[in-house]
Amino acid sequence: MKKPLLPAKKVCGGNKQITDREGLVKLLRWHFGHSDFRGKQFEAIQAVLSGRDCFCLMPTGGGKSMCYQIPALAKPGIVLVVSPLIGAMPLFLLFVSLVIGCFLFPALMENQVTALKEKGITAEFLSSTQTTHAKTKIHEDLDSGKPSTRLLYVTPELIATPGFMSKLNKIHARGLLNIIAIDEAHCISSWGHDFRPSYRKLSSLRNHLPDVPILALTATAVPKVQKDVIESLCLESPLLLKSSFNRSNIYYEVRYKDLLDNVFNDLSALLKSSGDVCAIVYCLERATCDELAAHLSKHGISCAAYHAGINNNLRSSVLDDWMSSKIQVVVATVAFGKDVRLVCHFNIPKSMEGFYQESGRAGRDQLPSKSILYYGIDDRKRMEFIISNAENKKGQSSGGSREGSSKKSLSDFKLMVEYCEGSGCRRKKILENFGEEVPPSLCKKSCDGCKHPNQLVQYLEELATIAAGRQRSGLSRIFLSSSNDKVGGEQMSEFWNRDDEVSCSDEDISDSDAFADGIENAKREAGCKASRRAGVNAKIELLERAEERYYRNQNCDKPSHKSDKNAITEAHREASRKRLTDSVKQASQRLGNPSIEIETSANFLENECFNKYGKSGKTFYYSQVASTVRWLATATSSDLTNRLGNVTPTSPCRSKVPTEASPKETVDEGNRTGTTSPELHDNTAAAASTPGPPASASTKLPPIPSFSEFVNRNKPNHNSRTRPLDDSQSQNKRQKKT
């Protein structure tokens, strides 16, 4: 059972500097009610109080804000906090609370400041949403001989203005600027999942204020992003503090939309079955968000929309209604407080970093929580299309200089797809993305991959069957809503921000403008192509149905010679056998067990993978091979014995990929055995008696495709032209018809 917070006391830190641990812990208890620091908090606080730069990497809910709030109390002066969280819109959210208590939106600067003031800490924020009177009052306090403000929250756009930089220089000249804290520091890196160009301008802080320590904080940064942040902010010999990304209190699960009867009903049932908890639901599009809100309201869950499509006054009204417990659900674009127990993604996120940060909104108070992701095949295709389209536009506007970024975005998204479509531990996939080594015992069945492995494999097999069926049938429905959504006469993007956000407020954060525009351009382009092809597709479908009726009337099967690009060839299998052979050899050496038949065991395991996913295509087959390789890396001797105990050197482990024998091979086989089938003899005689051009023994006539196969074969390449049949092929076709 978690200990309750100690009673908070509103005691000011005084005018003298406090650096010892005992004094800092007293401040922590007095103002925040905690008995001691967690993780790397104390080390970060000590570093910045001593004047040293610090890069602090803590998971969501790890208490990053304490690293600059305590120093603001421990040392006279002002701590400047740069945050992107005014107007930041990572995705459309649906916030659900079945029981409303006293709940804050700490990601909104205004609410952070309000919460700090309630704890006896003088804090202020500057943004475009404030009245002129409020701004004037703050500036008067900053210009006074002894400012009362301890924490000042601003946006990166405000930092870039000459007027505010001049104000900072004056405060610094008076010896009052103690620390610069940059929250969500990963936004400065173009390699990060949430790059914001406005953050790049923060490098000017080091030029203008070289002796002020900088504290960079983030919850999501892979090694490459960490390096980019440190270099971009010009941090000098910073103290690097990294905590584990593992959120042990969160249970991870993926639910497959294509296997559910009704995903809306499933979500409603999930929210109701979770009891009296708070939940966040992330949505991809405004239309989906509104549709979902309407559905939840219909099922008795109070709901109100909050996204880029509504004006500022309505947003404020929604937040006020939430704070006063008038509504239970709000569509929002902010991080949430510590009461969240469930985070649902109604659509697949575009990167693992983004997913980790968003799912990490749950359980910030370390209590058990859940992350549920609803994954759909159409969602995946839609996101792939959007990312490609948005990055292509960025590449064109910058002369192709963003090609590397485009590949990075698609690569990041593939990791997210692997998280959903792969078997095995989901927690391990998350942590390995951030470069952590994960012991096998870490998860302890705290994800559906470890808790229900057999059920997950069954779901993936069903999903693969559905995906293969849709691939054969052609196009899938990618865009679900109209691109002509307007609010107040203005064209709105389907994603984060208003298209005219810069003109509305140069201090509001807009995420990737190109990415936001990408869905609009992609949907318009897809709509034009769909209208042009509608008539052609209708005619083709009519002819295909006629062909099907013809073969049914003739009581014969339609010939099939269509090649599948996703088919697993013998070359693919041989490469997998080699990979598994190396893994078995390493396992044998690691366990000191030379009695393992390496090649035979590898063949057995490859055959196992092929039998399970051979019909599903290369993607699932390779995923199963990779899963087997990971299993070999951690398997014990007993595990190997249980799985490979019946394998002997003579076991027939290879299942050959079926291939069609050519006419020449059939004839040669008949000659070798000294027998010839009557049908073959009759066909040969008939062919000999039929006048026509002489055929050599090596001649192999191509198969004649059916109409639908002919059409589908030419679909991928619209520039290719059908070559007319030569005389021999035409004659052979006439013979076949007769």
Automatic annotation (TrEMBL):
**Keywords recorded for this protein, A-Z:** ATP-binding, DNA-binding, Helicase, Hydrolase, Isomerase, Membrane, Metal-binding, Nucleotide-binding, Nucleus, Transmembrane, Transmembrane helix
Q: Where is the Helicase C-terminal domain?
A: 255-406
Composition bias, Basic and acidic residues: 662-671
Q: Which residues form the Helicase ATP-binding domain?
A: 45-239
Instruction: Give the family, as the similarity comment puts it.
Output: Belongs to the helicase family. RecQ subfamily.
Q: What is this protein called?
A: ATP-dependent DNA helicase
Bias-annotated ranges (Polar residues): 641-653
Q: Check the record and name the Pfam families matching this protein.
A: DEAD, Helicase_C, RecQ_Zn_bind
Any one annotated GO CC term: cytoplasm
EC numbers: 5.6.2.4
MF annotations from Gene Ontology: 3'-5' DNA helicase activity; ATP binding; DNA binding; four-way junction helicase activity; hydrolase activity; metal ion binding
Q: Main localisation, per the record? A: nucleus
The catalysed reaction is: ATP + H2O = ADP + phosphate + H(+); Couples ATP hydrolysis with the unwinding of duplex DNA by translocating in the 3'-5' direction
- Could you tell me the superkingdom of the organism this chain comes from? Eukaryota
Instruction: Identify the NCBIfam families for this entry.
Output: recQ_fam (TIGR00614)
